[in-house]
Design brief:
Elements (H helix, E strand, L loop, with lengths): L6 H12 L6 H6 L20 H8 L16 H16 L11 E8 L2 E9 L5 E9 L6 E7 L21 H11 L4 H6 L4 E5 L26 H13 L1 H10 L4 H16 L5 E11 L1 H12 L5 E5 L8 H4 L19 H6 L6 E6 L7 H17 L6 E6 L7 H15 L3
Parallel strand pairs: 4-5, 4-6, 6-7, 7-8, 8-9
Antiparallel strand pairs: 1-2, 2-3, 3-5
């Protein structure tokens, strides 16, 4: 029989094995030892002192599926493999369905017709949208998918890019701040494009309404500005909840958003007014994020413009994480592809990326480097002339000057010469 070791002997033995001096027993019984010493310096990082630990994990990161590496011999090899990888990571690829669109309302405007529709993007969702059809265009005409932004405004989605003449007061300010007072879908239809804008999941008519808010109803036209602000804050607080809920369901929020955008192309192809070979997409901010993926993943997009959303991701980790929504984060994507790699799957087709030099959502170096990387892909693919990357001396917005350049780009590539 071996004698039972005393607590003092046990602690002394364990400390010796660990190569440290044993502390006095009476002190050990009163309080734990102090924390390890650490030099504390301000980091100006979203993660504070933990940023230095995370930085070690991303230092020297190479994106294994980038076309700028040596993994792929041809552009087509890159696009096929990279697209398959992105779809795998999005965690949402349901069976394709007949859109079975219904026209719910039709309004005649000077020069165009606006339809409110609903159509299927999957077996799970019927998605509300607006379609704007020019009256004097030669049909079939070019079409643009106008992808609305985030802007911290959940109560409205597709309405962000449309001027109805009489807009909700919340949208009047939103149009001014984000679109320089000229909502893009209305401007594009006046240039002869068929335009469609849908509500992304969690926005507009697909937003969250909590039990406590049921008494206010669901008709946003009846909301005061104060109610819009309050309900918007409720939706904002539920971003993390939708992400966690979808993870428990084995899905992802960006997966649903991006899939719905791709199925919007399916719907456009059912319209006799649309030329299937002349479909473009555009968006600012989250709309730019959506345009990046739609252009990169869907071969049917003939020309694209990504506005106010492009950067290499590594430099964002320090102080440009909290400025972004959960919808912009796809787990594991950046083991394989950087954002410039994603949009580069658009090559060899025409792509414009517009950046705002005063944009506080992204580090300037990351924005600048992203343009260099996209340009390098187009150069390697032998189609350098099909890419345009431009900076504008403006804050985060889609100004009229930027719109004019983007619309001219679409005119050049989507309209007959």
């Amino acid at each position: 029989m071996f004698p039972q070791p005393s607590r003092r002997r046990f602690l002394t033995t364990m400390a010796a094995a660990a190569g440290v001096s044993a502390w006095p027993l009476d002190a050990a019984e009163k309080a734990p030892p102090g924390d390890l010493p650490r030099e504390l310096k301000p980091t100006a990082a979203d993660l504070g002192t933990l940023f230095t630990e995370v930085e070690k994990l991303v230092r020297g990161r190479r994106y294994s599926y980038s076309f700028l590496g040596d993994r792929f011999r041809t552009l087509e090899d890159f696009k096929k493999s990279a697209r398959d990888k992105v779809f795998e990571l999005l965690l949402y690829r349901p069976e394709k369905v007949d859109p079975k669109a219904e026209v719910l309302a039709q309004i005649e405007y000077d020069g165009y017709t606006l339809e409110k529709i609903v159509f299927s993007t999957s077996p799970h969702f019927r998605v509300p949208a607006y379609v704007l059809i020019p009256k004097k265009a030669t049909f079939p005409a070019p079409a643009i998918i106008d992808l609305h932004s985030h802007g911290g405004m959940f109560l409205f989605g597709k309405e962000k890019v449309i001027d109805f003449g009489k807009n909700h007061p919340a949208m009047e300010r939103y149009h001014q701040v984000n679109y320089d007072g000229r909502p893009t879908a209305t401007a594009l239809v006046r240039r002869g494009y068929v335009v469609i804008s849908i509500d992304a999941f969690m926005f507009g008519e697909r937003r969250v309404l909590m039990d406590a808010d049921i008494p206010v109803g669901y008709d946003r036209s009846k909301y005061s500005l104060e109610e819009v602000h309050r309900l918007n804050q409720v939706c904002r607080a539920k971003e993390a909840t939708i992400v966690k809920s979808l993870i428990l369901a084995g899905l992802s929020w960006p997966g649903i958003v991006i899939w719905d955008d791709m199925r919007t192309v399916d719907y456009l192809l059912t319209r006799r007014e649309v030329d299937p070979k002349r479909i473009g997409c555009v968006g600012i901010s989250m709309g730019g994020y959506r345009a990046m993926f739609l252009a990169g993943l869907d071969e049917r997009i003939a020309a694209a413009c990504v506005v106010g959303f492009m950067s290499t991701v590594a430099p964002m980790i320090k102080a440009h994480v909290d400025t972004h929504s959960f919808v912009h984060f796809i787990p594991m994507l950046h083991q394989y592809l950087d954002w410039p790699d994603v949009v580069s799957m658009m090559a060899p087709k025409p792509l414009m990326v517009q950046q705002c030099s005063q944009d506080r959502l992204f580090p300037f170096d990351g924005m600048n480097d992203s343009l260099r990387r996209i340009e390098a892909v187009y150069e390697k693919a032998g189609v350098r002339k099909n890419f345009a990357g431009r900076f504008y001396d403006a804050p985060h917005m889609f100004s009229k000057t930027m719109q004019d350049d983007a619309f001219a780009w679409f005119d050049h590539h989507l309209k007959p010469k």
